[in-house]
């Protein structure tokens, strides 16, 4: 090859390299500007009809309107939510796969000895969404009529008392573990595949106690079909103001909420995350969404919590809170 041909070839290769480099540098920005140009999937780790699914479907419509694309709720169930969490962790970080999960995101590291994901490293944090309060319930004919009587009864009859939950990693299980830890007793736990069948057996008198979310318990409480011993928030609930908190009844600092957060796979572009965060804020400020959530005492978090930093701090705090409780109880999942 002649010298001038070598020079020409070298210059051409250099120009191609520069062009490729320039394209690669602007490609993410172009993709973010075009986002979204197809439907978005919002993964929920629990079955349709449950509390988390209900929240997802309520926010999906207004989020989709703000983004200009349909947000499709997809239920990926199994293994206490770890199947869905793993799927999202391994998904393409392009903003087309989002994840709504409750506090189970924080308890998985202690519940499962081997996890294929790290909640603190494998996700982008979009923001907190809602808090769902819990109520400690007893079957209608349970001997204790109030929380003080319940405390006295379980200390004497702990071997006979049963407490139901929705399975490993469920908020109802964690609430029960915390109650037993604070009371210094071990009750017979009865796991179910969801709070629906657990509540059915409580109503039928097959189990004694259940800690469950307000989303499905309020009607039964108001119809006196169960005994309500206390709510698990630090303040009384507007719709259940006659039921005292466990905190005010002596279990200081007892607080269990099924807090929810919105996540995306690690590496999702910041510009895309900003658009999703804006859509989430629009949804949570929607009057109809607020009214529907309020009917079940579900609390929309303040807008100051609908941030990446707030969700990350919440997750870190809850991992540190629940890890010792779970390990002390030896409540490991398979």
Structural features, described:
The structure is a single chain. The protein is 46% helix and 16% strand. It is an alpha/beta fold and 334 residues long. It has two domains: 167 residues, Bordetella uptake gene, domain 1 (D-Maltodextrin-Binding Protein, domain 2, 3-Layer(aba) Sandwich); 107 residues, 3-Layer(aba) Sandwich (D-Maltodextrin-Binding Protein, domain 2). The strands form three sheets. A five-stranded mixed β-sheet has the order 2-1-3-11-4, with helices on both faces. A five-stranded mixed β-sheet has the order 8-7-9-6-10. About 1% of the residues have low confidence.
Reconstruct the topology from this structure:
Elements: H1 3-34, E1 40-44, H2 51-67, E2 71-75, H3 82-89, E3 97-101, H4 104-111, E4 123-128, E5 130-131, E6 134-139, H5 147-157, E7 162-165, H6 171-183, E8 188-191, H7 195-203, E9 209-213, H8 214-222, E10 226-231, E11 261-265, H9 270-284, H10 287-294, E12 299-300, H11 308-329
Parallel strand pairs: 1-2, 1-3, 7-8, 7-9
Antiparallel strand pairs: 3-11, 4-11, 5-12, 6-9, 6-10
Helix pairs in contact: 2-9, 4-11, 6-11
Provide a brief overview of the structure.
This protein is α/β, with parallel strands linked by helices. It is built from 11 helices and 12 strands. It is 46% helix and 16% strand.
Q: Give the SSE string.
A: HEHEHEHEEEHEHEHEHEEHHEH
The helix content, as a percent range, equals 40-55%
Low-confidence stretches: 23-27
Rg over alpha carbons:
24 Å
Strand order of the largest sheet: 2-1-3-11-4
Q: Structural class of the helices, strands and pairings?
A: alpha/beta
Question: Which percent range describes the beta-strand content?
Answer: 15-25%
CATH class of the largest domain: Alpha Beta
CATH topology of the largest domain: D-Maltodextrin-Binding Protein, domain 2
Question: What is the averaged pLDDT score?
Answer: 89
Distance between the termini: 68 Å
Second rung of CATH, namely the architecture of the largest domain: 3-Layer(aba) Sandwich
- The total domain count is 2
Number of helices: 11
**Number of DSSP E strands:** 12
Q: How would you sum up the global shape?
A: globular
CATH superfamily of the largest domain: Bordetella uptake gene, domain 1
Biggest beta sheet attributes: 5 strands, mixed
């Amino acid at each position: 090859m002649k010298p001038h041909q070598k020079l020409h070839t070298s210059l051409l290769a250099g120009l191609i390299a520069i062009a490729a480099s320039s394209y690669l540098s602007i490609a993410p920005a172009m993709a973010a500007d075009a986002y979204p140009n197809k439907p978005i999937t919002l993964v929920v780790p629990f079955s349709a009809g449950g509390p988390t699914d209900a929240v997802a479907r309520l926010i999906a419509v207004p989020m989709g309107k703000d983004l200009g694309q349909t947000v499709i709720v997809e239920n990926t169930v199994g293994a206490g939510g770890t199947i869905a969490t793993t799927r999202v962790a391994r998904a393409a970080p392009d903003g087309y796969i989002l994840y709504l999960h409750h506090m189970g995101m924080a308890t998985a590291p202690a519940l499962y000895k081997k996890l294929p994901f790290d909640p603190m490293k494998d996700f982008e944090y979009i923001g907190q969404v809602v808090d769902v309060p819990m109520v400690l319930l007893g079957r209608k004919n349970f001997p204790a009529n109030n929380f003080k009587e319940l405390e006295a009864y379980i200390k004497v009859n702990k071997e006979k008392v049963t407490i139901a939950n929705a399975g490993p990693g469920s908020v109802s299980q964690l609430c029960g573990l915390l109650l037993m830890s604070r009371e210094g007793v071990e009750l017979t736990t009865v796991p179910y595949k969801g709070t629906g069948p657990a509540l059915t057996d409580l109503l039928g008198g097959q189990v004694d106690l259940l800690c469950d979310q307000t989303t499905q318990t309020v009607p039964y409480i108001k119809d006196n079909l169960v005994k309500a011993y206390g709510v698990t928030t630090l303040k009384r609930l507007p719709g259940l103001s006659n039921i005292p908190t466990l905190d005010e009844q002596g279990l200081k600092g007892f607080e269990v909420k099924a807090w929810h957060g919105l996540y995306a796979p690690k590496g999702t572009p910041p510009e895309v995350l900003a658009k999703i965060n804006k859509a989430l804020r629009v949804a949570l400020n929607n009057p109809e969404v607020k009214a529907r959530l309020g009917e079940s005492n579900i609390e929309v978090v303040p807008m100051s919590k609908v941030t990446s930093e707030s969700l990350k701090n919440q997750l870190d705090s809850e991992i540190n809170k629940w890890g010792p409780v779970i390990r002390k109880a030896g409540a490991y999942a398979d």
